[in-house]
Amino acid sequence: MSSVAGPSPELSRAVAVAVVKKVFDQAKSQGDAAVKMIQSAAKASQARPSGHSGSLDVIA
Q: Which end of the chain is less packed: N or C, by CB atoms within 10 Å?
């Protein structure tokens, strides 16, 4: 095998790990936001005042 034929396996592995980590971190932060949104929606549906219209736009 010749090292001239392209990037070294170590380099391509490091790039792949960096890309996967970046994608994973983005997915995790989006997942955390989704979980918080679902939790706040669940709390709102459980503790809804009698005159509430049911919209979630009042949640801060």
A: C
Model's pTM, two decimal places? 0.44
Where do we find the tokens 């801060």?
A: 60
Q: Which two tokens stand for residue 33?
A: 């936001």
Q: Encode pLDDT of 13-51 as tens digits.
A: 999 999 999 999 999 989 899 999 999 988 887 765 555
Within 13 Å and on the Cβ side, how many CA atoms surround 57?
A: 2
**Side chain identity at 37, as an amino acid letter?**
M
- Kindly state the tokens that stand for 44: 């709102």
End-to-end CA distance of the chain: 60
- Sign of torsion over alpha carbons 27, 29, 30, 32: positive
Contact 41, 56 (CB under 8 A): yes
